[in-house]
């Protein structure tokens, strides 16, 4: 059983690394060459990316319900083909309309094939026992930016941005699709009428509908939605503008890319700490600490300038790494496993909308205030921390500590 779970985590982790590297982290390196080639401005490319994020927000709840009902194997395999199709359309784009269509297809894939879908797949298979498996996936996929940014930049420099898109599309068909098809099949929902391992009291079956007895109230829903929206705004803004932001503090292009490459390892290091030292505490504690990491790093960069760039990258990556886990585990331990996929899609809908506007809004802030724009994301981090402190007064279930 442990070997089977480890194999599942490895397959999902590698597939997620590919999915994130070729979608979420793509514009940071390819937006400029895309814009030049298509006769567009760089903000036009980010606008198309924002459309993809809006599409993903709308698709998320439906994809989550499908995973609740039938498991994630078929859904995730389908997203491999969607990613490949979107990237192929992107590679053949001739203008803004065709680029917008390509990113629209990418949005369908992102809404049904990124972390929320992977987490829901695990919860559908293992219910509350999946907490540490969720951490395992994020440990592997935490290297998506470390792999994606340099590889996209290298492919674009060597052969062009179109060839970079074709390469990512081929990887989804040759690597991502087999990985997702290797996932275990979930039992049909009607065959899982009884509570699964680690279910909360009141959970019954896998119909996809939340059990009334497990709902802690509207306050918890709104609190989590705000925390996810604010932190995803920051993570998306940084993913789109991190090198440019650092250059505003006098750091050269090579230095900015080098510091950006630290984000992936710092995410993984923080997740290892969460997995090893914080595994038996409620995820609220690690989430609170994580929301403070970006504001602390931003304060250091704002006060000390360029010399604090590496520390900022490490702190931002560490906080973002743990918050990614919290987005999967907090809804699980607060609401239970019943209907997890659909509920996760609903909770993340505001976050996806915030993501959609983050590249554009933070780009405007950078244009107007340069590095001082960091005050915006630092304030959002502090507000998220305060919200999580209040959430701690709401009733939650004990954390699940068993795992693979």
From TrEMBL:
It is a multi-pass membrane protein. Coiled coil: none annotated. Keywords: Cell membrane, Membrane, Transmembrane, Transmembrane helix. Residues 188-213 are annotated as: Disordered. InterPro entries: MFS, MFS_dom, MFS_Efflux_Transporters, MFS_trans_sf. It is found in: Cell membrane. Residues 8-396 form the Major facilitator superfamily (MFS) profile domain. The chain crosses the membrane at residues 45-63, 75-94, 100-122, 134-154, 218-239, 245-264, 285-304, 310-334, 372-391. PANTHER family: CHLORAMPHENICOL EFFLUX PUMP RV0191, PURINE EFFLUX PUMP PBUE. This is MFS transporter.
């Amino acid at each position: 059983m442990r070997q089977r779970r480890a194999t599942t985590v490895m397959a999902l982790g590698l597939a997620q690394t590919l999915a994130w590297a070729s979608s979420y982290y793509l514009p940071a390196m390819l937006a400029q060459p895309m814009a030049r080639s298509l006769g567009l401005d760089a903000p036009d490319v980010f606008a198309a990316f924002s459309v993809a994020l809006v599409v993903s927000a709308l698709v998320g709840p439906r994809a989550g319900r499908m995973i609740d009902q039938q498991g994630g194997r078929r859904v995730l395999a389908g997203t491999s083909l969607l990613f490949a199709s979107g990237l192929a359309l992107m590679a053949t784009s001739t203008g803004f309309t065709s680029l917008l269509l390509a990113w629209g297809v990418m949005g369908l894939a992102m809404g049904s094939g990124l972390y929320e879908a992977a987490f829901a797949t695990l919860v559908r298979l293992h219910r509350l026992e999946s907490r540490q498996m969720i951490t395992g996936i994020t440990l592997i996929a935490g290297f998506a930016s470390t792999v994606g940014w340099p590889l996209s930049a290298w492919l674009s420099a060597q052969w062009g941005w179109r060839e970079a898109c074709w390469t990512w599309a081929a990887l989804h068909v040759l690597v991502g699709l087999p990985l997702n098809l290797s996932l275990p099949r979930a039992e049909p929902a009607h065959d899982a009428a009884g509570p699964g391992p680690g279910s909360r009291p009141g959970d019954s079956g896998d119909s996809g509908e939340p059990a009334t007895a497990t709902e802690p109230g509207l306050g918890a829903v709104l609190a989590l939605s705000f925390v996810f929206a604010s932190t995803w705004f920051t993570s998306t803004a940084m993913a789109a503008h991190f090198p440019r932001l650092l250059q505003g503090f006098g750091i050269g292009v090579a230095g900015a890319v080098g510091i950006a490459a630290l984000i992936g390892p710092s995410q993984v290091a923080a997740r290892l700490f969460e997995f090893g030292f914080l595994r038996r505490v409620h995820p609220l504690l690690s989430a609170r600490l994580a929301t403070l990491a970006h504001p602390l790093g931003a304060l250091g960069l704002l006060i000390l300038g360029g010399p604090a760039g590496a520390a900022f990258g490490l702190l931002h990556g560490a906080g973002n790494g743990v918050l990614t886990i919290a987005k999967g585990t907090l809804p699980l331990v607060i609401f239970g496993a019943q209907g997890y996929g659909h509920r996760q899609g609903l909770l993340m809908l505001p976050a996806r909308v915030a993501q959609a506007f983050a590249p554009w809004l933070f780009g405007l802030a950078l244009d107007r205030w340069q590095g001082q724009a960091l005050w915006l994301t630092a304030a959002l981090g502090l507000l998220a921390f305060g919200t999580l402190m209040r959430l701690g007064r709401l009733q939650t279930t004990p954390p699940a500590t068993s795992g693979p």
